[in-house]
Specification:
Oligomer: single chain
Number of helices: 7
Order of helices and strands: HHHHHHH
Amino acid sequence: MYSDILKYLGLTVILLLLQFLVLNNINFMGYVNPYIYILIILLLPYRITRWMLLIIGFALGFAVDYFSNTLGLHTTASLVLAYFRPVILNRWSFKSVQDIRGVPDVTNTSLEWFVVYALIAVLVHHFTLFVLEVFTFKHFWLTLVRIILSTAVSTFFIVIIELLRAPNKMSR
């Protein structure tokens, strides 16, 4: 149990540092903002309690808000993702891997399933984030383009990171 906690903390630190030091300082055409820190929320065990999921979502979002000066946008988007994660998993999950120690990653599921799961979850997060950021329908199409492009790029990075975490899955 403690080794799992240390593993999640280590991954959290690595993803947050990568987010703050690299991805937040790269301008991708002005429309694309990849956020990979939400991978932590995606990889939490199936059986985690909802209140713990919300606390972790709040802490991650607050950390990103603190270092990005975004005044609660990431906290809200991460909380929305944490709240809807059980709904997403119940809708698209394999029942055979939902045991006590199961986690929704590439090693317990399939690459195709993980890509769909990540895409839906990232879309929920980014939709919330960018709609709250703009908070008007004046730039609806521009916001929609930002949501779609950022979701695609974030999902790509998240899947690449997940494949790097589980290299033995590629050989099967």
